[in-house]
Amino acid sequence: MIYHKSVLLSETVEALAICPDGIYVDATFGGGGHSKAILDHLTNGKLIAFDQDEEAISNRLNDPRLIMVNHNFRFLRNFLMLHRVFPVDGILADLGLSSHQIDQADRGFSTRFEGMLDMRMDRNKKMTARKIVNQYTEGDLAGLFRNYGEIRNARKLAACIDRHRKEKEIETTTELKTIAQTCAERGKENKYLAQVFQALRIEVNEEMDALREFLKQAPACLKPGGRLVVISYHSLEDKLVKNFFRSGNFEGVTEKDFYGNELSPLKVITRKAIVPSESETEQNSRARSAHLRIAEKR
Predict the structure, then answer these.
(1) pTM summary value
(2) What residue spans of 169-262 are helical by DSSP H?
(3) Are 15 and 227 in contact (CB under 8 A)?
(4) Is 288 part of any domain?
(5) What is the maximal distance between C-alpha atoms in the chain?
(6) Any bridge partners for residue 232, and if so which?
(7) Kind and range of the H or E run holding 224
(8) pLDDT score for 254
(9) Is the pLDDT of residue 3 over 70?
(10) 205, 228, 249 - which closes a domain
(11) Which of 154, 180, 205 is the last residue of a domain?
């Protein structure tokens, strides 16, 4: 059962330029929507799908052409080598949470439900949002909220959390929301809470480090002419992807050889990110912040 309404589905399939006999990677299987669409365009090809969430793996599609890998996509190269499917014709990474993860209260991802402050995509990890909120120093919390949540008054929020946790450990999403709302600008509480939860989720799951590792490996894992397609949902991710696609590094500085040829291993296919149509965002509000970028192996 596919329990996730995939974002930019037709645009993603078109971006991958799928060859029926090719080998493709869905680096973030999630609810399986993108994987199913890729498989629908394959005949004798193969699809390797990664997901660190065991619940996503249990939702696997029954298809002999599909290889499931229950690990983070930061180990992309290792598992492609292990399964002898290296290099591949195309790689997709949809960096968003699946609807199933968001809608499960006990996972702690959503501001809409009460649950324990967990936020682990891989439940075997020891670090949780609860540990971060209660054990990080006030200064580390401020840096976390500033860097990963882009929260302007991060110091005020960290101080407020520190004051409350000295009286009682903060355990649930509701408790954190109640505290954070006192620091939010009136009328913008929901956006503020989303930024707070985003920062914690990124830290728990080491999302930015994993994305960097994945991007650095991806070009070598592609055949010449193979496509790399990434869907990001916030500016931190999109900036990394945009810079790497353009220059082959995360600073966005284009290096050239003696003859003036760009040294980036990728050629950008779309100068501007592809975003969902109005009709898609009306049907799926979670698509609103999606940005799809396409690059091709030189």
Answers:
(1) 0.94
(2) 173-181, 189-205, 207-221, 235-247
(3) yes
(4) yes
(5) 65
(6) 291
(7) strand 222-232
(8) 86
(9) no
(10) 205
(11) 205
